[in-house]
Amino acid sequence: MFGTRLPRYRTRSGMFDDMVAAQIRRLNGAWPQLIRPVQFAVEDVPPSEPAPWEPEPSFSSQCFPASHGIPARIVLYRMPIQSKAQDRVDLQLIIRDEVVLRLAELYGRRPEEIDPDWNM
Predict the structure, then answer these.
(1) What range does the domain containing 24 cover?
(2) How far is CA 79 from CA 54, 56, 95, 110, 115, in A?
(3) Domain of life here (predicted)?
């Protein structure tokens, strides 16, 4: 009944991915040297049993420093983040805060240095 380009066609997971990509693009404009070397991923839920080398698991997101030729990675967990959000704007803010928090953790910076609006 409606085309694939119409907003109704977008799934919740597709909209979530778009919001994550928008935050990455926004931060890349200000901090390309921090964003380019990092891989970003979205998974539905965190692993039930983390690998032995993984730190204490987070339910919203995790970051993994670069090692042994593998680039640094930030993984956001869609379902836990969506369960925290009250509406679309709230979801965008939570995604922004998670991405900024994990970037700060990877680079040993305060989140406010990367995004002054963090956690507001």
Answers:
(1) 10-45+58-112
(2) 21, 19, 12, 26, 24
(3) Bacteria
